[in-house]
Every structure is written in C-alpha cells, then in structure tokens.
Design goal:
alpha/beta; Rossmann fold; Arc Repressor Mutant, subunit A; 2 domains; six-stranded parallel β-sheet; 10 helices; about 15% strand
Length: about 220
C-alpha cells in the first residue's frame, strides 16, 4: 500500500520530533522531510513533492500564510494542513483564503490530527471541531455572484455544513438519517450547481463567501 507522504514545517524542533513519531507510527503514513522556516518549507516541497504538508503559522523567513500562498502556485498538488496555536477567526480565514485545506489546533488530541491528515489527503477540507462552529457562524459579507447559489436547497446546506466540519459521508448520513448514496448525491448536485471541480474548492468558497453560515 502506498503511504501518505508528509512534510513537517514548524520552527520548534521538539514539536516536529513529536509529530514525526506520531505520523510515522501510522501504517499508512510517513514523514519524508522537515523544515524549520517558511523558505525551507517551500524549497523542500518542490524537491520532495509530498502529498501533504503540516504547516505552522508563526515561522521565520516566511510565515505559514505566505508559504501557503507560494505553494499554491509552485506546488499546487501539495495539500496544506495548518497546525496552529491560534484559534481566532481571522487566522483561520486567512489560511483558508491562502489555499490551506485544513486547520487544526496544536492543543488537539493526536487522533484528531491523524483524522485531519486523512481527510485533507482524500481531497476534503477539515476544520478542528473546536473552531468549526466559530467559522461557520461568524460574521461575513456574503456575495451571491457564483453560478446558481440561490438554488441550493436546505438539505444541501445541511450536508455542506457537516462536510466543512470534517464529517465523512457515513457520519453525515447517520447524523441526518440518510444513506451514504443520498449524501453523495447532495454533494454532487451542489458541485454541479456551483460549477466546482473538487470538494475542497466548494467548501473553501462557501466559507469565504458566507453562504455556509448558520442562519
């Protein structure tokens, strides 16, 4: 089985060591490199072509948001999972807008980080449960200029809220008492309505534009 290749970017060597032990302890993952600053993170991403990078925000040379923006252009296939001590809405939205596909707090339990890695690697967008409610219900200035936004149904809205919170299709189905096939159908129809090609693109746009906020 091909392992998920992970690059760690954090300026604290002790934390990187702990993360390496955690990731390498998974049968389906391996750490392929480490970086202590933003410049090194971008360089190693280009050289090693990892599947996913665990990115800190506060790093020397380039911070996490700046490095993420560069990688979105230079290494678009590398997915970014932010691991940060900051839980405020401004930091989370900034990183998502920069191109990150997930945001996990450093105080989270190890199992949550591994769940986030797998979700992002599979093409999803993952928010730490501790901040998901803040982001999804926070103040926004929504725009309605994308294709068929107004045609999204209440049920599709419910499904996408759970997608953004990091739930799997099975978990969403259990929460809404629907089959996995029905959940997949709701997501597919929304993507068609909004003319999106990936699940992460859909959820990121929804967060930025505000139509995922709780009414």
């Amino acid at each position: 089985m091909k392992k998920l290749r992970v690059l760690l970017a954090d300026d604290h060597a002790v934390l990187r060591h702990g993360l390496k032990l955690l990731v390498d302890g998974q049968s389906d993952m391996e750490v392929v490199g480490e970086a202590g600053d933003g410049h090194a993170a971008c360089k190693q991403a280009q050289e090693l072509a990892p599947d996913i990078m665990v990115m800190d925000i506060s790093m020397p040379e380039l911070n996490g948001a700046q490095a993420t923006e560069r990688l979105r252009v230079s290494c678009p296939r590398v997915k970014i999972l932010v691991l940060s001590a900051y839980s405020d809405e401004a930091h989370v939205r900034q990183l998502l807008a920069s191109g990150a596909s997930g945001y996990v707090l450093k105080r989270t339990v190890a199992e949550e980080l591994i769940k986030a890695l797998r979700a992002v690697a599979s093409g999803g967008l993952y928010l730490d449960p501790a901040i998901a409610g803040l982001i999804l219900s926070g103040p926004t200035a929504p725009t309605r200029d994308h294709k068929a936004t107004g045609q999204i149904t209440a049920r599709e809205h419910e499904v996408l809220l759970d997608v953004a919170r990091g739930y799997s299709n099975k978990e969403i189905g259990e929460r809404l008492h629907l089959s996995v096939k029905t959940i997949e159908g709701h997501k597919a129809r929304v993507m068609e309505k909004l003319d999106f090609k990936s699940r992460a693109e859909l959820v990121r746009h929804a967060l930025q534009q505000g139509w995922l906020q709780d009414e």
